[in-house]
Design brief:
The protein is of the alpha+beta class and 917 residues long. Strand 19 and strand 20 (668-674) form a beta hairpin.
């Protein structure tokens, strides 16, 4: 605002505003001029007084309005430029608000840099803001926020200490937070206690105080803190922590009572942690049966938590159930393989069952995760024991030495050390020059026969026990029954006292696909040491050959080995049957791949190929063995689960040049067909791009292959796209694995057999289904809407509102039979549902069932007092069209608003108006 001193006798002034476009004059009657809006340039102002007779006085000096220009720059997000303009404004305007505006712009510029994760610059601009009028609470809080998100807690602490944080409650709270994040728990306790004394209870500070006591293992203080916190802020989390701390302080009865009360109080919460803590109570009270029950309850609610299974395993072990204990420890280990406690428990359980090799493997895998202190003594001793059982005394001595370094005065450990040392000395007198330290032969998946041509089936670990380097070692491997030849591996050098892990290759003959079985394996080694040739061998080795349908979902891309574009038997079948069946069929849709997918789907559906579920859980990281049928196998049985049908459709389309992919969803798989169309091309074909998956600048058509034997192609397509989008919306992005890409690692298997055509002669039905689906494809939006209604009704079968909306939609689409059925259901559920009664009458009238319509309308009249005109209108129109003009006139005269007849039928309105007059 511009203001000036008013001279006596002057009550009018002219303010002249000048910018690059020229000057504008404004008449004012008060000694001030208000600029309301930000200006996009610097405006110059002069003021001229005007006397009562209209004469102008002396023009004032020019004032440049940098302030309004700065406001414009601020709105545009040009905060640094706004500061420069505001500094210019200070040269001609004396207003303390300018400094406040400068501070505001510096703070906004700091926010820009914070959003860009440039924390150093953000802090620099906050410092500049503080230099203008000091460090305000707002500036300090913003700076602390940046130190927290950048995890620079110590600098944040020093910053607050430099701005006298003790005078501001919110800054003291932030100081406590930073000390907690910096794990200075003693300081947190000290400062939090002072805060509570000065300001009273604050839930955030109380939480830090209680948690800091817990971190310091002052569990009684922590318990008191959480009990105080729960009295202010009752919550499931606070009560859970109270139960946990009661257990840690040995108050088991109190903990059990508290946790049991939680089961009732929080019946809608996820209660697995409560059951777990009850299990812990049972263990500490030595009530192992009760502990087992509680752990099982926790697992039933959430099977994915390792500590629940570990607790259950410990309870089973104490309850003398070694088999159940082993299974629980195994599950805990599988869920959390980096936890040394779980690997130790699992390894010890395996040892008790006599499975030394597996126990040794588990302990070896845990080596990187074992604590480097005395808490790991038991692990090292168990590992040493297992190594000794395998005659690996050198390694066993190493592990005992580690345990000995942590507990040097333990006589039992010392005795073990001496025993292992003596065993190693004895072994050195008789041991082989090269030892087979271990051999790992993996199960053989016949479908991966081409994969094994370049990838090993396992590995052998050799160890050079001598003090010299040995060269030119030769390993030969032959797998009985299924090897096509002897495989030889050369090891150029094996350094003294060193291990060498050697991958084992294999080459297979066609007998690999015959049947699942276990076959012998011959492994021989040949080398020369100190002029003498040595030929040690591994005896009694076997390898398991799995079913030719076997697949491991932990290597999910290996499903690509079942899809072979070069499968001659399948290619011949597809060309002789599917291609020939549809060779003369026409389509307005120009995309070849879409049409081929529809033809294949229609052909298999017409010829009885159908979904049949199996007992396995497909496509989960936790699942392992599954069975997948090759296309020729499924075409023989005509039944398969989701992956079988997917492989059949993918193999069929790939054999005629159409690229396909696997849509990878946990627990399920779907097919995707590459249509090679842009969004514009899809629209040009009369289709909706929303029903495709866009990937790598092209589009893919998804299919739910399990519906081949149950529903049409369009339903399969829409079901798949809906399922895909639901996963995306939930935050899970399903991976699309192109078979062509997956086959670079897992080449197609050569396994195939001739296919019998005689079971696939239903040509007419295939063509009929194809033509019906072709027509439906152009009505997919309509079908998708109906699927929405059907899905809603499946979820809420008694929801009258959903049924009514579905019925009205059916009326609009001329599906009168469906609409009638839905409205009758509503009328049965709610006999007073006026709109259902009225619209059912409309359907009867629309389909010329006038007597039924008349009854519905009269019934509707009984159910309403406010909407009678709607019913009189319908009865009037009904009677007129049923050639009963007199009755129509009766209802016409009852209408309070006769124009509603005109809106429906002008001719009837005119006729009845004339008769009425």
């Amino acid at each position: 605002m511009l203001s000036w001193k008013a001279l006596p006798g002057i009550s009018n002034w002219i303010v002249q505003a000048t910018d690059a476009d020229g000057s504008t004059e404004h008449n004012v009657s008060e000694p001030r001029y208000l600029v309301i809006d930000p200006m996009d340039s610097v405006i110059s102002y002069t003021v001229c007084p005007v006397a009562a007779d209209g004469k102008r006085g002396i023009v004032s000096d020019t004032v440049e309005d940098y302030f309004s220009y700065a406001r414009h720059l601020h709105v545009q997000g040009q905060y640094v430029q706004a500061v420069e303009a505001l500094r210019s404004a200070k040269g001609s305007i004396l207003d303390p608000k300018i400094d406040l505006e400068i501070v505001k712009n510096y703070v906004c510029q700091a926010q820009v840099h914070e959003d860009a994760e440039n924390h150093t610059l953000a802090l620099d601009y906050l410092r500049q803001a503080a230099s203008i009028r000091g460090t305000s609470t707002e500036i300090a809080l913003k700076a602390v926020h940046i130190y927290k998100i950048s995890k620079d807690y110590l600098r944040g602490i020093k910053y607050l200490e430099g701005v006298n944080y003790e005078e501001d409650q919110s800054l003291i709270s932030e100081y406590i937070t930073l000390q907690y994040l910096n794990e200075a728990f003693a300081t947190v306790i000290d400062k939090a206690n002072l805060y509570v004394q000065k300001y009273g209870s604050d839930v955030i500070v109380l939480r830090y105080l209680a948690t800091a006591h817990e971190e310091m293992e002052e569990f009684s203080h922590a318990l008191s803190g959480f009990q105080r916190l729960a009295s202010i802020e009752p919550s499931f989390e606070n009560d859970l922590k109270i139960g946990e701390l009661q257990i840690k302080t040995g108050r088991l009865k109190a903990a059990e009572l508290h946790l049991q009360q939680m089961l009732t109080r929080y019946s809608h919460e996820k209660l697995d942690l409560v059951y777990f803590l009850l299990g812990e109570c049972g263990m500490l009270s030595e009530n192992y049966g009760i502990a087992i029950d509680h752990y099982l309850s926790a697992i039933r609610l959430d099977n994915s938590i390792a500590k629940y299974h570990y607790g259950l395993g410990a309870a089973y072990m104490q309850n003398n159930k070694p088999g159940e204990s082993l299974n629980s420890f195994k599950k805990a280990y599988e869920l959390s393989p980096t936890n040394a406690h779980y690997s130790f428990a699992y390894g010890r359980a395996l040892k008790r069952q006599g499975d030394i090799e597996s126990a040794l493997s588990v302990l070896e895998s845990a080596q990187d995760y074992v604590a480097r202190n005395a808490t790991a003594v038991e692990h090292h001793l168990l590992y040493a024991n297992l190594l000794s059982s395998m005659s690996r005394y050198e390694d066993a001595l190493r592990e005992i030495s580690v345990a000995r370094s942590y507990q040097p005065d333990d006589p039992e450990i010392e005795n073990r050390y001496l025993t292992a040392k003596a065993a190693l000395q004895t072994q050195n007198l008789t041991r082989e020059v090269i030892e087979f330290r271990s051999v790992q032969l993996n199960r053989i998946f016949p479908s991966l026969n081409k994969y094994y041509e370049t990838n090993p089936i396992g590995q052998i670990t050799l160890y050079n026990t001598s003090n010299t380097t040995i060269t030119d070692l030769e390993i030969s491997v032959f797998i009985h029954e299924v090897s096509s030849r002897m495989n030889t591996i050369l090891v150029p050098t094996l350094i003294a006292k060193q291990e060498e892990v050697v991958p084992i290759p294999a080459s297979f003959n066609d007998r690999l696909f015959d049947r699942p079985r276990i076959v012998p394996v011959d492994i021989n080694l040949k080398f020369v040491h100190e002029g003498t040739q040595h030929n040690p061998s591994l005896r009694n080795q076997t390898v398991e050959i799995l079913s030719n349908k076997a697949m491991d979902w932990q290597k999910r891309r290996s499903i690509a080995s079942f899809v072979n574009p070069q499968d001659n038997n399948l290619s011949y079948f597809v060309k002789q049957n599917i291609v020939q069946t549809f060779r003369n069929e026409q389509s307005t849709i120009l995309n070849r791949n879409l049409i081929l997918a529809l033809q294949a789907y229609s052909f298999y559906r017409a010829n009885g190929v159908t979904f049949s579920s199996d007992s396995s859980i497909s496509n989960l990281d936790t699942s392992q063995l599954d069975e997948v049928q090759f296309p020729f196998q499924l075409l023989e049985t005509k039944a398969g689960d989701c992956e079988d049908l997917l492989v059949l459709m993918a193999g069929t389309l790939e054999s005629i040049g159409t690229q396909t992919a696997l849509i990878d969803i946990p627990g399920h798989v779907m097919l995707a067909v590459k249509v090679d169309m842009s969004a514009a091309e899809i629209t040009k074909n009369g289709l909706n791009p929303d029903y495709f998956i866009e990937r790598h600048a092209t589009h893919w058509l998804p299919l739910e292959t399990t519906l081949i034997g149950k529903d049409d192609f369009v339903t399969s397509w829409l079901t798949a796209i809906r399922h895909y989008k639901q996963k995306v919306e939930s935050g899970l992005m399903p991976e699309i694995i192109e078979f062509a890409d997956a086959q670079k690692l897992y080449p197609p298997s050569s396994f195939t057999k001739a296919i019998n055509n005689k079971a696939y002669q239903n040509i007419s039905d295939a063509k009929s289904l194809y033509q019906k689906d072709l027509a439906k494809i152009l009505k997919m939006t309509e079908i998708n809407q109906e699927m929405d209604f059907r899905a809603a009704l499946e979820r809420y079968p008694q929801n009258v509102s959903v049924k009514f909306q579905y019925a009205i939609w059916c009326v609009k689409m001329n599906y009168f039979d469906k609409a009638e059925r839905l409205l009758l259901e509503i009328q049965t559920q709610d006999p007073r549902h006026f709109n259902a009664i009225l619209n059912l009458g409309n359907i009867y009238a629309k389909t010329s069932r006038y007597e039924l319509a008349r009854k519905q309308y009269l019934f509707a009249l009984e159910k309403t007092t406010t909407q009678k005109d709607q019913v009189y209108r319908n009865l009037c129109l009904l009677e007129y069209r049923d050639m009963n003009r007199a009755k129509a006139m009766e209802y016409f005269l009852l209408l309070s608003d006769k124009d509603i007849i005109k809106q429906v039928d002008m001719q009837i309105y005119a006729d009845l108006m004339e008769q009425g007059e």
